[in-house]
Specification:
Transmembrane segments: 6-32
Number of strands: 5
Strand content: 35-45%
Order of helices and strands: HEEEEE
Strand order of the largest sheet: 1-2-3-4-5
Protein name: AsmA family protein
Largest sheet: 5 strands, antiparallel
Keywords: Membrane, Transmembrane, Transmembrane helix
Radius of gyration: 25 Å
Shape: rod-shaped
Helix content: 25-40%
Organism: Novilysobacter luteus
Structural class: alpha+beta
């Protein structure tokens, strides 16, 4: 068996460490950008959008309603209806 010198062992350890750091950074980047959305039609012109991030640990629930007079409305936790006509809205697939 041939033994490695001190310099070869240092570079093996350095390359292994760099690869592990890059792998960990990639996994963190993937989990930070992971999102899933559920769209539920509640009836009566209402839609609930649930956005989950960080593997379902954080959830944001938005409830929307269609009104012939006001167009689309957002319903907050206190059942107050806020018109969306003056706000930007992005839908992504």
């Amino acid at each position: 068996m041939v033994e490695k010198g001190a310099i070869a062992s240092f570079f093996d350890t350095l390359i292994g460490t760099v690869m592990l750091v890059l792998l960990a950074a990639g996994l963190i980047a993937i989990t930070l950008t992971w999102r899933a959305s559920d769209l539920e039609f509640l009836g009566g012109g209402q839609v609930r959008v649930t956005e989950s991030t960080w593997w379902g640990l954080e959830k944001k629930v938005t409830k929307l309603e269609w009104s012939a007079q006001e167009s689309w409305l957002e319903i907050d936790q206190n059942e107050v209806r806020i018109p969306l006509r003056n706000r930007a809205m992005r839908l992504e697939n």
